[in-house]
Amino acid sequence: LVNIQPNTPLVTDLFQHRLFLHHPGEWETVVIPLNDFVMTNWGVIQDGNELNKSEVKTVGIGLLDKQYGPFSLKVDWIKVMTGAEVEKVAKKLRIERLALENSIAKNQDHKDMQTNMPTGHGGSALNTHKYEEPKATVF
């Protein structure tokens, strides 16, 4: 969960966005348009409020998996980008994703031929190697 706290009279006001990672344990670039954040107060969605970009007080990241024990989160950078920058990063991510998908498909086809497993599922009904692009997301 990513939180943005605005500088408002109510300290419980937060703009929130759920963050899903697709490759745990690996670096990921995530883009989240500011318009995708939802205003909440004590976790309850508040309608009709927009984030005033000049009033951002804090940015926070929370782990909500309800798993007890140690964890690690490494953040290389957080940046607010303009529309042009977002488009540039999104294009780069699409190219990287396609290269990754092609590499996985080639490796899987080779494995499928060696094991005589049907292609298309990589030997698994879950197809855990398929990369899904984040829903309009970049950090």
Automatic annotation (TrEMBL):
The keyword Mitochondrion applies. One of its GO terms (biological process) is NADH dehydrogenase complex assembly. Keywords: Chaperone, Mitochondrion. SUPFAM superfamilies: Galactose-binding domain-like. Residues 129-139 have a biased composition (Basic and acidic residues). It comes from the Eukaryota. It is found in: Mitochondrion. Residues 120-139 are annotated as: Disordered. Residues 2-75 form the NADH:ubiquinone oxidoreductase intermediate-associated protein domain. GO terms for molecular function: unfolded protein binding. GO terms for cellular component: mitochondrion. The keyword Mitochondrion applies. Belongs to the CIA30 family. This is CIA30-domain-containing protein.
